[in-house]
Specification:
231 residues; Ribonuclease iii, N-terminal Endonuclease Domain, Chain A; Double Stranded RNA Binding Domain; three-stranded antiparallel beta sheet; 3 strands; 60% helix; elongated
Amino acid sequence: MNESTLRECAETVGHEFRDMSLLKLALTHSSYAAEHDDEPSNERLEFLGDAVVGLVLADEMYRRHTTFDEGVLTDLRKSVVNAEALAVAARRLGLGRFIRLGRGESAGGGADKTSILANAFEAVIGAVFLDAGTQVAHQLSLRLLAPEIAGAVPGLKYLDPKTQLQELASEHELPAPVYELRDEGPDHDKVFFADVLVGGRRRGSGSGRTKKAAEQQAAAEAIDSLRANHA
């Protein structure tokens, strides 16, 4: 791989490498290394980049979604830090044409294989981390994965109504929903009633045998109300 090709790849990625050998290593698949005894593969950089991307996404999801519990945050991170999503980002960059492959892997279409693209993407992030440090690698990861990050929450179809309402309120720059609860009946046969206010306005009501059920019903009604108002 000549210097001009490396510079083209660096421009494509959006990072000016001080040490171009790191980028060259990030683009070297194990199949190529196996055919060239003096060439190491990108597997160690992939390991490093995987850790960097995982931390970046964990930090971003934690800061963006203050009401989500650990389970949802984990699912959000996994929805971006996986081979399929990373390969999509790599294809968007056109990274496949720069990856150095062995003859057999190249003939077999390795430049567009999901696993190879995802691994190369992580290796490039690892190379940027070593070349320029944590902050640059952090910002580059967020930029390159911006579409995947933006689509992470809509991709979680099973989010409960309270979480959906929280996201919808945030999307429309409204204050966080506030729930007002009351109950009726004896302890053994209690019914809970909930009203939810968004921006000081009552948007939904619900009832149920538990506080959670009443709040979820109120949230579902509020979602319909907000969507109708902002249609």
